[in-house]
Amino acid sequence: MSGRVSSMFSKMGGFTSIRLCIIASVFFLLLSLYEHCHF
Questions:
Q1: What span, in angstroms and rounded, lies between the C-alpha atoms of 8 and 38?
Q2: Maximal C-alpha separation, the chain
Q3: Half-sphere exposure in the Cβ direction for 29 (13 Å, CA)
Q4: Between the CA of residue 14 and those of 2, 19, 21, 31, 38, what are the distances in Å?
Q5: Tens digit of pLDDT at every position of the chain (39 positions)
Q6: What is the DSSP string of 1-39?
Q7: pTM over cut 0.90
Q8: How far apart are alpha carbons 22 and 17 in whole angstroms?
Q9: Residues of 2-37 as b/e, b for ≥16 C-beta within 10 angstroms?
Q10: Minimal CA–CA distance to 25: which of 35, 33, 15?
Q11: What's the CA gap between 1 and 29, in Å, rounded?
Q12: Can you tell me the distance from the alpha carbon of 34 to that of 2, in angstroms, rounded to the nearest whole number?
């Protein structure tokens, strides 16, 4: 199981930075929307 997960991570090693950027932008967008609707 752990070997399979590590192989999957090594396969998607090139997409980690792009995925992190997308997650960060989506999180920031949701946070700004929440603050805009909250206040």
A1: 40
A2: 48
A3: 6
A4: 20, 9, 13, 27, 37
A5: 567 767 766 666 656 777 787 889 999 999 999 888 766
A6: -HHHHHHHHHHTGGGHHHHHHHHHHHHHHHHHHHHHHH-
A7: no
A8: 9
A9: eeeeeeeeeeeeeeeeeeeeeeeeeeeeeeeeeeee
A10: 33
A11: 35
A12: 37
Which two structure tokens, joined as six digits, stand for 13? 């090693």
Structure tokens at 3: 């070997």
Token readout for 26 is: 């989506």
